[in-house]
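hey so u asked for the seq, here:
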Amino acid sequence: MEIFCTIYYICSYIQTVPQVIKLIKTKSSNDYSLWQVFLGLFGLICWSIYIFTTQQSVIVYVGTVIDLLLVLLVDGLVLGFFDFKNKKGYKADEN
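ran it, structure tokens below
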């Protein structure tokens, strides 16, 4: 089961690399790298498997809450629920 913990740490360390590469190539920070999302979610899945199989109750509760919050935040960013340009926290109507 230690392999899941190792995969999580590797993913968490390298998940920002695709965003930096995209930033350098496009010279714009407006885009979001989907590879960063995939690495982050894969790492969270591996971490969840690790904490549930080791049966450490405190880590399970805290890890589950953190996983849920991160998934909601990442999905919100990717799907465009958060629009930081208008500072309202949601997309403004085009009309």
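The helical segments are 2-14, 17-26, 34-54, 57-79. The radius of gyration is 16 Å.
lmk if thats what u needed
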